[in-house]
Amino acid sequence: MKPPVPTDPFARLRELTSARVALGRSGPGLPTGAMLDFQRDHALARDAVHAPFEPERIAAALAPLPSIVVHSQAVDRGAYLRRPDLGRRLEPASAEALRGGDCDLVIVVGDGLSAPAAHGHAPAIVARLIAALAGWTIAPIVIAGLARVALADDIGERMGARISLILLGERPGLSAPDSLGAYLTWNPRVGRLDSERNCASNIRPPDGLGYDQAAATLTWLLRAARARGMTGVGLKDESGNEGRLLPLHGATGCTHLEGDPGNTSPVWEREGPDRGLPAEAKLLRSVGGSDWEGEGL
Amino acid sequence: MYATTLAGQRFGFEGLRTLLAKATPARSGDELAGIAASSHIERVAARWALAEVPLRDFLHEAVVAYESDEVTRLILDSHDAQAFAPIAHLTVGALREWLLAAPAEALIAVGPGLTPEMVAGVSKLMRNQDLIAVAARRRVVTRFRGTVGLPGRLSVRLQPNHPTDDPAGIAASIVDGLSYGCGDAVIGINPAGDNLASTISLLNLIDDLRTRFDIPTQSCVLAHVTTTIEAIERGAPVDLVFQSIAGTQAANRGFAVDLALLAQGRDAALSLARGGGQVCYFETGQGSALSADAHHVVDQQTLEARAYGVARAFDPFLVNSVVGFIGPEYLYDGNQILRAGLEDHFCGKLLGLPMGVDVCHTNHAQADQDDMDNLLTLLGVAGVNFIMGVPGADDVMLGYQSTSFHDALYARSALNLRPAPEFEAWLEGMGMLDAAGQVRLPDSRPALLDYAP
Fold first, then answer.
1. Which chain A residues are Cβ-neighbours of B288 within 8 angstroms?
2. What is the ipTM of this complex?
3. Portion 33-92 of B in contact with A at CB < 8 A
4. Which of A39, B53, B81, B336 lies 20 to 30 angstroms, CA to CA, from B263?
């Protein structure tokens, strides 16, 4: 009987692709190392899906930026996975807490399908955006637990935001358990279609999109959205960068939303038109009441 | 109104649509849609009631309105009354017994007389072993350069996807897969971007490799049908025209297709005369209609069977259900994925389709490789036409886990299944088989490596 073969005459193929080629074999089966490699990566991805979200950790990382913590109607991770509709609406107390207002932008940080992605990457993106958006009126950062992309519609509508931007963990891939996605929506309203949003995905330095690059992309998108009064397919059409800037397509895209990891889709990577550090944005301190027009940072 | 009394309780079901939904084995997608049975006893009561429904009822009560849905019109207008005659007197419960006892020729002959809804209905009354036993007797054989679906054979779609469609990376995965004896169903690439230029260059890549080594297989780039039609117009070497399809007109609209466009795609591929008359490759999956908000309050498994009703109108070369791709809100865990995979294979085969199954799962589903092993093995026993072969089971472009080249080797050796005959002869000619007909490990530099950049 032949001994197990630890390598493969095809080994040089491994230099050509990130796919798991040239794994070798023992009889028809995988060598033990390759089998356990897969199990390690799958375990990291599954653990990321079920990792608890720590809103206070995000809030602390964002400080001194003001923030508010809310929750979707999903009561736990199991409900969240089975009932995407519940992850798209605020539970009553959270909804109550977000009354009224008028602002250019609300930034939402959600766990999505990977809390580690939100913990690891979202604060750095938020800080860069706040610094870049001179002259914008920005609501307190909303930190949302058990959130789907469309929860930002509910949040943005309640807060009177002209644009919502939600940063949340994407579905973990075997090679990317902590990839962050960003979705922006002009005039957020419950019931917005995915085709009315734009996104930048696979924010995950150093392997994916870096913070500066992602923030520049999002800043450009936010400015373009405000200038044109739209997001989605229309923004793509006007950009002259077709295929680089990603609108979300149609109803079937829903499956892919919070589904595909970022590397499945092209991401707009152009440098922002004016990347020089601007004056600081006006950041609102609280929601509701007279504090709504709070002091700038 | 259908009704039954069970364990001292009276259960009523408003129409076939409700009855079918309540009788379905539990799955998260039907719960999400709010149409699943609310208790175990209600589910069994629905099965009792369904077992007593005459098959003729399915010809008079459409689950999606005839007037507003072209899939319903296709199903009812193409129903073959003559083929239906031998079972016209049966109820759904009696159809189950008829199927379990029927010889292979009878299963083939009755196909055009069955509607997708009848097949979905009877599948809900069948245990896993019933689904396997009947499907195993219903072979569906299709031909292009190779012959897929013969008894004792298991074919593999080689799926060499790459995150950026890099030609060298894709070629590396193809060469690797061929060395494991995979690729006899098709070498099929999901492109990272659906644009014409990359579709054409990927088609040329596979065709070049195929002709250089004279491989008796087929190529496909799984772009939207309109992209493929355009590629054909530009003279690209298209073997199979691909499209994702679903079981309602509205869900197909979500895929930006309708029946006329599918026919146009088929005609375009036929015009090239590269194979025979079977030039379509369709993919489906339970839950696609619900995710497109186009489900008409019909359960996802019945809608999946209706997608097969669409497919069979185009005499496809390959059809596969991408069963675990859609995620846990439709199929929650390994059990639900396993059941759905067996249902889809059974329903497709009974409707005369060359069914393969993408035995797969995502990272947010409660499933792992052991669950995939189970389904793969059961489908091998059930005579599935083909499975996917993805390097190391990890699709680095689509971000989900399917079956690997190794899994294909396992299934073939454990179940004594062989590749398609033309492909097997090619493997032999390349010196890639051992005396027992199994793919052997190369002991020197394999010729295929000459292709790797």
1. 252, 255
2. 0.94
3. none
4. B81
Alpha carbons B216 and B228: distance in angstroms, whole number: 22
Residue B437 DSSP one-character state: S
The rounded Cα A172 to chain-centroid distance in angstroms is 12
Confidence label for A270 from pLDDT (cuts 50, 70 and 90): very low
**CA-nearest residue of chain A to B369?**
A39
- Burial bucket for residue B187 (CB in 10 Å: 0-12, 13-18, 19+): buried
**How far is residue A120's CA from residue B311's CA, in Å, rounded to a whole number?**
45
Q: Which helix (H) or strand (E) holds B284?
A: strand B280-284
**B412 and chain A in contact, CB less than 8 A:** yes
Confirm whether A136 is domain-assigned.
yes
Instruction: Write down all domains in chain B, each with its CATH number in brackets.
Output: 1-53 (2.30.170.30), 142-429 (3.20.20.70)
B180, B360, B396: best mutation site toward chain A, by most A Cβ within 10 Å?
B396
| Predicted confidence (pLDDT) at residue A252 exceeds the cutoff of 90 | no
Domain-located, residue A27? no
Candidates B427, B452, B443; CA nearest to B180 is B427
CATH number at residue A246: 3.40.50.11240
Residue B57: what pLDDT? 98
* B186-189/B155-158 β-pairing: parallel
Number of A to B CB contacts under 8 A, please give it.
174
Q: What is the structure's pLDDT at B277? A: 96
Pairing of strands B241-244, B219-221: unpaired
Is the per-residue pLDDT at B181 higher than 70? yes
Q: Strands A67-71 and B147-148: what pairing?
A: unpaired
DSSP annotation of B153: B
Nearest to B169 among A16, A34, A176 (CB): A16
Judge: B163–A263 Cβ closer than 8 Å, yes or no: yes
Of A19, A38, A45, the CB nearest to B169: A19
Which chain B residues have a beta carbon less than 8 Å from that of A174? Answer: 363, 394, 396, 399, 401
Looking at the 3D structure of chain A, how many domains does it have? 1
